[in-house]
Amino acid sequence: MAIMKREATLLLLLLVLFSVPTVMGHTGGGGGGEDERREERREIFLLQHSKQVVKTEAGEMRVVRGFRIKGVENPMHIGFITMEPKTLFVPQYIDSGLIFFVRRGNAKIGSVYKDELVERELKHGDIYRIPAGSAFYMVNVHDRQNLEIICSIDSTESIGRGPFQSFFIGGGSYPASVLSGFDPRTLATAFNVSSSELKELMTRQQGGPIIYVQDTQDTSRWASIMKLKQQERLEQQKRMGEDDDADQEEQVEEETWTWRKLLTSVLGMEKKVATPNKAVRSPDSYNLYDRQPDFKNDYGWSIALDEDDYTPLSNSGIGVYLVNLSAGSMMAPHVNPTATEYGVVLSGTGSIEVVFPNGTSAMNADVSEGDVFWVPRYFPFCQIASKMGPMEFFGFTTSARKNRPQFLVGASSILQTMSSSELAAAFDVSEERFRNLTNAQRESVILPYKSPSPPKTRKPKESSAKRVPSYIKSFASDMIMGFD
Ligand SMILES: *[C@@H]1O[C@H](CO)[C@@H](O)[C@H](O)[C@H]1NC(C)=O
Ligand SMILES: *[C@@H]1O[C@H](CO)[C@@H](O)[C@H](O)[C@H]1NC(C)=O
Ligand SMILES: *[C@@H]1O[C@H](CO)[C@@H](O)[C@H](O)[C@H]1NC(C)=O
Ligand SMILES: *[C@@H]1O[C@H](CO)[C@@H](O)[C@H](O)[C@H]1NC(C)=O
User: Fold this and answer.
1) Where is the signal peptide (predicted)?
2) Residue in 358, 466, 467, 477 to alter for ligand 3 test, most ligand atoms within 8 A of Cβ
3) Which pLDDT score is estimated for 71?
């Protein structure tokens, strides 16, 4: 029974995968300004169509949409935000959870955490989470350097309109503030201001979602909307200070914010800037580059961040990873038994191979900086850095629990941990021969990929279906029956 259920899931998965090229065909025209070479490729595990969702003089945001796999999980989308020096992404909340990764530059992110405005300075390599529905703004504080952010957009809680839906709090003519949807008299009453004062507040902004600001250190017109009273901060601090253990638990709770607080601060038109205070105990950011690699050898290193390392991830159900492969190294063929993986190539070039459960090649694609790939749960895959230089990639997994990739090849792989007599029988070779073959690779996880060109171990694309080793076939099906 259980097996049948899993097979049904697999079937569904494959059906969805079949229909992917059609989906891409429909959305093909929408991207605009895409590399033509890319347009021609129909690699189903490369997410090649990015859509501009915000574009102003001061910056832009593009989104690469993930595919929905029915019955498995909601898609994750990947966002790319670029902001000019001294600019502000106006206060908003979004129907999707976001995890920011600062690719370049420095950001100041203000967000409402338990009714409290918290500002964080983020630098290169920092990870920071904004829960769905939480109001936030983002400032590029630098006066010369652009800010580049890559973020996961988790659509689990989305209302289903587009890749995500923004609700701008600050705004005016453009972007429209969600407040402007209320009857002016209702709003004027709510704000306790005259209708002309209200009009001033609700119509002046025309710069779009990303705007230039005069002084990023001081409060801007829109940032001030979210500033709260210094007094409230101090009280909060006192409360937090008394009660450390409780705070740990509270962090796991879903954060909330209220309109009342925001309206109060608008109403009060606070001019006073609360000095950033490190003592406010809200989740901090986490720097990926400060962390010791979880795995490291001569051929590269990898880092995987889960909820035990960074508590906010437990609320999001998303993990983060970063891998640096030296020139000509490969991540050994592996599979994620519990998570779908989304990756972005940060630097370098290389290739990515993904294998169908039936043991045929699903994709063998060259990738370079900025490419986005995804690998569904259970699908075996590997990444290979070109000989030109190291390849660095980073991404998100759809599980905040420890996602233990299962390595299919290499020392410490499944081939070695499983009993060799059964496996040898499965391959129809003698046990000694099997051991000789599987012990030849001394390295694990990240392997040297030394081969004179053309690569000897790599099969030519057209005949790849026949050349895929049969053990991958049997493992792929074992996997699907072996995990729930
Ligand atoms: C509204 O503003 C007036 C004066 O500006 C003040 O007297 C009154 O108390 C305010 N009402 C509320 C409900 O805040
Ligand atoms: C990645 O590894 C290469 C050496 O293989 C090194 O030169 C490079 O600085 C590393 N990149 C990062 C971001 O650590
Ligand atoms: C393997 O599965 C893929 C995707 O479902 C399909 O396109 C391909 O024809 C299958 N190949 C074989 C040999 O069954
Ligand atoms: C296994 O390796 C050993 C040592 O290299 C060799 O003597 C032996 O003949 C090999 N056996 C098989 C079956 O390949």
Assistant:
1) 1-25
2) 358
3) 54
Closest atom of ligand 4 relative to the 432 alpha carbon? 13
Helix, strand, coil proportions of the chain in percent (round to 5)? Answer: 30, 30, 40
Ligand 4 centroid to 431 CA: how many Å? 11
Q: What is 72-87 written as a DSSP string?
A: TB--EEEEEEEE-SSE
Among all bound ligands, the one having the nearest atom to the CA of 18 is 3
What does 273-310 look like in DSSP terms, one character per residue?
Answer: PPPP-TTS-S---EEGGGSPPSEEETTEEEEEE-TTTS
Chain segment 8-55, per-residue pLDDT in tens: 444 444 433 333 333 333 333 333 344 444 444 457 889 988 999 999
State residue 70's pLDDT score: 57
Q: 469 C-alpha to center of ligand 4: Å? A: 21
Return the CATH class of domain 2-45+291-450.
Answer: mainly beta
For ligand 3, say whether the CB of 360 is within 6 Å of any of its atoms. Answer: yes
Question: What are residue 81's DSSP bridge partners?
Answer: 61, 149
The yes-or-no verdict on residue 369 having pLDDT over 50 is yes
Contact yes or no for 103/79 (Cβ under 8 A): no
Same fold, 2-45+291-450 and 50-266: yes
More confident residue, 4 or 178: 178
Calculate mean pLDDT across residues 431-454.
82
CATH number of 50-266: 2.60.120.10
Query: Is 42 near ligand 4, meaning CB less than 6 Å away?
Result: no
* Residue 397, ligand 2, Cβ within 6 A: no
Residue ranges per structural domain of the chain = 2-45+291-450, 50-266
- For residue 252, give the 3-state DSSP assignment: helix
CA distance 62 to 151: 10
Scanning the structure block, which residue is given the tokens 């006066």?
Answer: 143
Ligand nearest to the CA of 323: 2
